[in-house]
Amino acid sequence: MKIETLKRSHLKRNIMILIIIIIIISTIIFTFTRAKYRSKYSIPLIESIINYKVSDFKLVSIYSKEEGGEYQNIDSIPKTGYILNTDNSYCEILDETGNSIKDESVELLYENGSMTFSNVTKKGTKCYLYFDEFIMTIRDQILQNYPTQLIRTDFDEIIMNATSSTIYYADTNQGRTYYFAGAPTDNWVYFAGFYWRIIRINEDGSLRIIYNGTNPNQTGEDLQIGTSNFNDEYNDNAYVGYMYGTPGGLTYAETHANINDSTIKVVLDEWYEKNLLNYAEYISTEAGFCGDRTPSTSEETSNGLGGTGTIQTYYGAYIRLITNSSPSYECNDNDLFTVSSSSKGNKALDYPIGLITADEVKYAGSGRSSANNNKYFLYTGNNYWTMTPSWLLLSRSAAGFFVYNSGMLGGSGPYMVANPYGVRPVINLEARTIISGSGTTSDPYIVS
C-alpha cells in the first residue's frame, strides 16, 4: 500500500510540472508576438530614416519611368540620374469614412539621392513617389558657363564689345530664350566638320547655330556656302516667301501657301543632303525657322491687309524693326517652317535647315537700321540673306532683309529678292545633345 501511494504522488507532481512549463512557454510566445506588433522599426532610406509599424509596412511606394513611358515599381529610391516628378508624386491618408484622400500638407524633397518628408503629422500616411530620368540638356551644359545673364531693352544700341561668360535672355510665349550679342569669344561650335556660331538657345532647349566655315575665321567668303538669289522672280508678293503659293493669287492664303520652294531653299536642301544627312540624329526636327509674312498696307502699324499680287505691302518685321526697333521671337504657324514630324509650325520643310531671321540679327546687336557694326559676331564683311520678308513696293520690287557687308541690317530700300547674296545655313542641335569644350576658337563646343 505504501508503494502504490508513492507512485501516484510522483505522477501528480509530474503532471503539475508539465502544466507549469506549458503555461510559461505560452506566456513567452504571446508576449513576444504581441511585442512584435507594438514595436516600431526603422527603414534606412538612403540617408533618411522613416519609422514604421509592421501594420504600416507599405508606407512608401516608389516608381520610375521606363523607356516606353510607363512607370514601374522599384525597390529603392534612385541615388542618381533621376528627378522627382512632383506633379505625379503624392501622399494620402484615410478620412473618417475610411476612404483615401490626398494629404496636401506633406512636403516632398528629393535632393542628392536623399528623400525628405516634411509635415507628416497623421498616422497611416502613405506616399507614392514617381521618378523620371534626368538628362542634362544642351541648355544646362551651356548655361553653366555663363554666370552673367543680362536683359536688353534698347535695340537701337549697337553692341560691339567682346565678352566672355556673358549671355542675354528674353521671355516669349514659348518660354525663355538665351541669346548672344556683341562680340562674344565663347559661342563657337564645331559640328559635322564645320565651325558654327551660337545664335541662341531656343525655348525648347535646342541650340540654334549659324554656319561659319571650315576654319574659325571672323570674316570672309568662307563664312558662307556660296551666294544665291532668294527667289529668281520679284514682281509679286508671293516671292518674299521661303516657300510660296500662287503668284497673282487673289487671296492671302492662296498667295502665301507653302507649296513652291524658293531658290535659296533649294540651295540649302542640297547642301544639307550632301553634308548633314549623316548627322541627322543630332539635329532638332522640332524647332523651326520663322519667315514672318504678316501683311500690312501701313508702314506704321499692322492691319492685316495686303500681301497679294502687286499690292504695296509692309511685312511684320518691317514695322517691328524699321519703324519701332522692337524685335520679337514670336512666329505664327503658317510662317514657322518645320519638317513634317514636328508638333508645331507649317510642317512644310524637307530638311530641318533654314536661315537666320532679321529679328535675331537685331537681338545680336546690329543696332538701328542705318548703323554699321563691324564688331559683332554676325559681321562677315559680306552681304548675306536672312529669312525675313521686308516689303513689296508699287514698283513691284519684292524685298527681304539681309545683312550688309558693313554689318548693318538692311530692309528699308529696294532690296530685290533676285539679288545674289551670301547663304549661311542655320540648324538647331537637339536639346539632349551632349557637348564638351568651353566655346572658344581653340576649344569650341563639340558634339560628343
Overview in brief:
This protein is an alpha+beta fold and 448 residues long. Helices cover 17% and strands 28% of the residues.
Give a written overview of the molecule.
The protein is α+β, with helices and mostly antiparallel strands. The chain has two domains: 44-133, no CATH class; 154-447, no CATH class. It is built from six helices and 31 strands. The N and C termini lie far apart (106 Å).
Radius of gyration using CA atoms only: 35 Å
**Which of globular, elongated, flat, extended, rod-shaped describes the shape?**
elongated
* Largest sheet geometry: 9 strands, mixed
Give the domain tally. Answer: 2
Enumerate the spans where pLDDT stays under 50 for 5 or more consecutive residues. Answer: 1-7, 32-57
Ends: how far apart?
106 Å
Tally the beta strands.
31
Number of helices: 6
Question: On the 0-100 scale, what is the average pLDDT?
Answer: 89
Question: Strand share of the residues?
Answer: 25-35%
**Which structural class is indicated by helix and strand composition?**
alpha+beta
What is the helical fraction, as a range of percent? 10-25%
